[in-house]
Amino acid sequence: FSQPVSLADDARPLVFPPDFRWGSSTSAYQIEGALDADGRGRCIWDGFTARGRILDGSSASVACDHYHRYPEDIALMAAAGFDSYRFSIAWPRILPAGAGAVEGRGLDFYDRLVDALLEAGITPIACLHHWDLPQPLEDAGGWQGRGIVGPFADYARIVAARLADRVRDWMMLNEPNVVALYGYGLGEHAPGLRLGEQGILRALHHQNLAQGAALRAVAAEHAGLTLGTVLNLQPVVADSDRPEDAAAAARWDAVWNRVALDGLMRGRIPDALAEAMAGFILPGDEEAIRHPVDLLGVNYYSRMTIRREAGRPFDAGWGDPRCRRRTDMGWPVQPEGLCDLLTELRTGYGNPAVMITENGCACDDVVTPDGQIHDADRVLFLHEHLESVARALADGCNVKGYLCWSLLDNFAWAEGLSKRFGIVRVDYDTLKRTPKDSYRYLAEVVRTGQL
Ligand code: BG6
């Protein structure tokens, strides 16, 4: 998607505060492999993969083999100068049936990982759930019912009891909106269901409830932790000034961004959805969803341009035909949207402490004959988004750190191994890791603290 773009036409020096945190994010299912190791149970993505729902027919059974190669991966983070690392814990490794018996060997793995991170001077940020829902819980209704709230809180408590003496930073969920829409609305992600608007809203509400319960469980387990969750937030813009597009955009913004954000931060479901959600919101739910957030994780990839399109959930169609620059996923490149989003959190939500917990892009990387990956598009993408973060900081936004997505090429869900998001290449035949130019670029930004 490269276009000749001037990197810095702003006269202000773009400097990051000395205590700004730097690093990368990953998730368990996308990098660990070792799906049969140490008593791990099945998750919804195992079945989804087995049903042939992955674009390139690949599976995550080996992925990056991080389960065995984590020391090498931590060494890569340390060599880049990263001080923080967000990873996720695999629920089916800890509770193979989702609830009940605890698998000690699963906990042992994360013990080893955390200790190795700390030894390398890297602060662990643990995310409790990044989409690998235990299959037995899905069989019992998954995120469609409130039966999942108790098991998630129990799981959170068990993990915190083991790790919170060393892990200070905790994120509950990753991107509940993506789970709701793609897993239960469009069926493009596990569990692959197409339950329409009600299914999407139910999944959102029950993730909100589970998240609230888990926040309370972790806080009760250990004092003084930094607690939060990770939301995928996308500024929504209407495709035209036609009233029907404006109305579709406003409603979509409520579904995509505000159910999660307003639920957590304000204990309020957006008015626009009150009627649609009335069938399953019980008295007391809004208080149960609200919880103080010490650190809000924000994943940013692009804006969303919405037009009214009948037949889609909430009559919302998206895609920005006018945007010429796109990543290998086809996603528009809109770095200014990140500054807009941070500004909205500052002005509309009391300027909470925010960490960018994902930002990055898929590129069609080419390995040169000497084995190098000159991923100029990714360097440009990272640079422009960091410019946006620096501008937001200069305007007073409370941004604490930036974690790129992702350290490694990985199993990109429905796209399997076909899309590469890493700043380090993984050769899926040999599992060899090769830092790309983007890795060296980011290491230099971390070293100098400026762009
Ligand atoms: C985010 C997810 O939505 O986007 C990551 O939190 C994911 O897990 C990333 O990998 C890129 O999307 P995908 O589906 O192409 O891997």
UniProtKB/TrEMBL annotation:
Keywords, in A-Z order: Carbohydrate metabolism, Cellulose degradation, Glycosidase, Hydrolase, Polysaccharide degradation
Class of the enzyme per the UniProt entry, highest EC level:
hydrolase
| UniProt entry tagged with the keyword Ligase | no
- Is Hydrolase one of the keywords? yes
Return the EC number.
3.2.1.21
InterPro entries documented for this protein? GH, GH_1_N_CS, Glyco_hydro_1, Glyco_hydro_1_beta-glucosidase
Entry's Gene Ontology molecular function annotations: beta-glucosidase activity
Its UniProt entry gives the catalysed reaction(s) as: Hydrolysis of terminal, non-reducing beta-D-glucosyl residues with release of beta-D-glucose
Any Pfam family: Glyco_hydro_1
Task: State the name under which the record lists this protein.
Answer: Beta-glucosidase
The opening ranks of the lineage are: Bacteria, Pseudomonadati, Pseudomonadota, Alphaproteobacteria, Rhodospirillales
